[in-house]
Amino acid sequence: MRETTDAESIPEKGVAMNVTALDAGSAAAAVDVARPVASTIEAFLASVERRAWRIAEIALRDPDEALDAVQDAMLRLVKHYSGKPAEEWPPLFWGILRRRITDLQRRRTVRNRILVWSGRATGNEGEELPAWEAPDMGPDPARALASRQAFAAMSAAIRALPRRQQQAFMLRVLEGLDVADTAKAMGCSDGSVKTHLSRALDALRRQLEDWR
Amino acid sequence: MNTIHENSINGLRGDHEVESHARAIFRSACENTDSYHTLRLGLARRKAMNAGAARSRVRIWAPLAGTVACCALVAGVLWMRPAARVAPTANIVASSAPIVSGQQAESEDLTPELGSSQTEMVQDLDFYRWLASQPAVASARNGGAR
Rounded to the nearest 5°, which phi and psi values hold at A14? Predict the structure, then answer.
């Protein structure tokens, strides 16, 4: 267990060199994630749609529901915020998508409770139906399979986290938003984002081996 | 103290490793999105853009339609105004009608009060003017006055 919850408050005098090296690594990772700001809203949506769908899929565990959530988020962004500056689109879009995902999760919880109460619950949320998967047209099926398995393991690990930690991890790490934009999208303070992220990383580090 | 620092460093390394590994898996999953879902995402984006375009058209036309409606309303009100003016005049005429009839009634009421001789006098006014201009009558008046 780490002593503090805020990763940025850890560096001290005696470890300056190593921390500098780690910061450089983080900066490199940030550069790797940093994306150019789209000039039009359609270009922005085109650049973000796959990641948004994958993140919604991780949270909802259902590709079609994830698709609906992404479409709703796109519609709302275009309808209500297309006049905003392009720099504001990412936190707005991810905030809308986060709320939509939360709504769907709550709705599903209520539906499951009703099913349990009425005695019609399946217990596996309808997973008895075979999931349709598109034919694999990639050049290296074995690699694609390994990638899918790793993604499934990571998704399961992320889903095991509390909801706010999931959101902080997905927005900050997977999507690569900065702390301020993540805070805007989550509707909380910067400090809360750091706390949630730190706890999420702490929990996920233990499961890292499962992803390999 | 050193142990705490080492743990912290290991924690940071672990965090960084988790982050980079998760990013790599996520990027790979995004790049390997199947064509079916890629197509559906494109359709969803197109639908959102079309909805936005329709909304912007409404945004442009709604104020224009509102302005036209206001102009039509004002024109209608102005067009109805002369009729509204006529109506009060008619009312006034209608309300004044009893007054006129009252005046007639008054004159009718007054006429019977005049004596019959006075009525004849009024009718033979020319004769009495001629009579007054006669010298005999005038001297008689003057003598009478003395």
Answer: -70, -15
Six-digit token string for A79: 């309808």
Any idea how long chain B is? 146
CA nearest to A173 within chain B: B19
- Report the C-alpha gap between B36 and A196 in whole angstroms: 35
Instruction: Report the residue of chain A nearest B59, measured CA to CA.
Output: A79
- The CA-based angle B136-B138-B141, given to 5 degrees, is 110
Cα–Cα distance, B41 to A57 (Å, whole number) = 13
Please give the C-alpha separations between residue A9 and each of A5, A19, B8, B28, B59, in angstroms, as whole numbers: 9, 11, 10, 32, 50
Identity at B131, one-letter amino acid code: L
What is the distance between the alpha carbons of residues A150 and B26, in angstroms, rounded to a whole number? 9
Q: Is the pTM of this model over 0.90?
A: no
Report which of residues B143 and B133 the model is more confident about. Answer: B133
Q: Pick from A101, A76, A80: which is nearest to A164 by CA?
A: A101
Q: Does B42 touch chain A (CB under 8 A)?
A: yes
Residues in A closer than 8 angstroms to B33, CB to CB, are 50, 53-54
**Contact call for A204 and B37, based on CB within 8 A:** no
pLDDT, tens digit (0-9, with 9 covering 90-100), for A121-172 = 655 554 445 555 555 555 577 877 888 888 999 999 999 999 999 999 999 9
CB contact under 8 A, A19 and B9: yes
Give Cα B8 distance to the centre of its chain: 74
ipTM for the predicted complex comes to 0.73
Asked if the C-beta of B14 comes within 8 angstroms of chain A's C-beta atoms, the answer is yes
Amino acid at A71: Q
Q: Tell me which chain B residues have a C-beta less than 8 angstroms from the C-beta of A41.
A: 49, 52
Q: How confident is the model at residue B70 (pLDDT cuts 50, 70, 90)?
A: confident
